[in-house]
Amino acid sequence: MKRILIGVTYYLPNISGVSIYAKILAEELVKKKKRVEILTSKYKYNLRDDEEINGVKITRVGGWQIGKGILMGKYPLVSFKKIKECDVINCHLPSLESFWLALWAKIFRKKLIVTHHCEFGFSGTIGNRAIAGLSFLPHFFTYLMADKIVSYTKDYAINSMYLKIFRKKITYILPPIKLEEGEKNFDFGKGRVVAYVGRIAWEKGLTYLIEAMKNVAGKLVLAGPYKEVVGDKTYEKIKERLGKNIVLTGPIEHKNLKNFYKKIDCLVLPSTNNLETFGIVQAEAMKCGTPVVASDLPGVRVPVHMTGMGEICELENANDLAKKINIVLNNGKRYYQKRSKKLEFFDFKKTVMEYEKIF
Are residues 234 and 90 in the same domain? Predict the structure, then answer.
């Protein structure tokens, strides 16, 4: 039985694109008779150090918060012990601690696969800039030691400060899109519904979306974690702007997202920098027949270009964002459903199959 160690800074119960990605990959590999262990952070004191969920063993290491990153003092020793027990190491970056997994992998001659989700740029919050500085060299050497690097798209890779250096190592694999039949029903009342799904965080461009809605006839639903977003206080900045036509739902269980997407008229992903590399939620919405408006960012614009199911808006431009949302609402869902193409590429089974090949 192949033994796989997945290193990811945040895992369940944290909700993010990266943690959901790692969850789907790990649990599907277990179904294929692989032994999978997650090595992650104990980012809340009340989380268990060790547990097993759906066949996946989870080990958590405590540490100190720095922006979106965590310094884990015991990580070098814990990872040293774990590496000796596995055959393949899969690091999910960004991850300040990934360097240790890469180093031990090379020393013990284990296969090292790095999955690039995004990278910390030197912008945004003080915490983000601090973690960008601290992580630059560890990330660089992790990519240097990798046998293979997984990137979502070529569009993002050629614009990445890391990936464009290591192009010969890159394998392009679209993220795993898995939608379940949830039980929860959603009722947003009369009128058209524009929605955002994700963490309420500074890099998501939500201030521009809220401003854009002044010129859109419809309700805005913001779905995602907002009170306990690690290293971010965006909710404090926007809460006074919420009202009758702007609703905050909190996080929605992933199994219920399919029903959610079917009830909205347009999904918007107005992200503003390269912490967003693709936007898994927009691929999920498209699979449910819902069009999207996405920022003109490398990688983020790919799902719309691939499928034709939406519009691309200018970065940090509330007026253009409103314009594109109105185009989608006026065209209607059926218009985008009729011209949609290549939706079959968004499939978790394809993603897992590609990982099995490189593992």
Answer: no
Rounded to two decimals, the pTM is: 0.90
Residue pLDDT, tens place only, 76-122: 999 999 999 999 999 999 988 999 999 999 999 999 999 999 887 65
**Domain boundary, last residue among 112, 142, 172:** 172
Q: How many domains does the chain have?
A: 2
Residue 205 shares a structural domain with residue 160: no
Mean pLDDT of the residues in the chain? 91
Is position 225 within any domain?
Answer: yes
Average pLDDT for runs of 10 along the chain of length 359: 94 88 97 97 93 96 81 94 95 92 96 92 60 78 96 95 93 95 87 93 89 95 79 70 82 92 97 90 97 97 97 97 98 96 96 96
Tell me which residue range forms the domain holding 201.
Answer: 193-344
Q: What is the 3-state secondary structure (H, E, C) of 150-209?
A: EECCHHHHCCCCCHHHCHHHEEECCCCCCCCCCCCCCCCCCCCEEEEECCCCHHHCHHHH
Phi-psi region of 222 (alpha: psi -120 to 50; beta: other; left: phi over 0): beta
Task: Yes or no: say if 64 and 70 are a contact pair by the CB < 8 Å rule.
Answer: yes
Smallest CA-to-CA distance from 116 within 83, 88, 137, 142 is with: 142
> Residue 327 carries which DSSP code?
H
Token code pair at residue 279? 């936007």
Amino acid 344 reads: E
CATH number for 278: 3.40.50.2000
Question: How many Cβ atoms are within 10 Å of 58's Cβ, its own excluded?
Answer: 20
Contact at 8 Å (CB) between 218 and 322?
no
Task: Judge if 216 and 310 occupy the same domain.
Answer: yes
For residue 347, the 8-state DSSP code is -
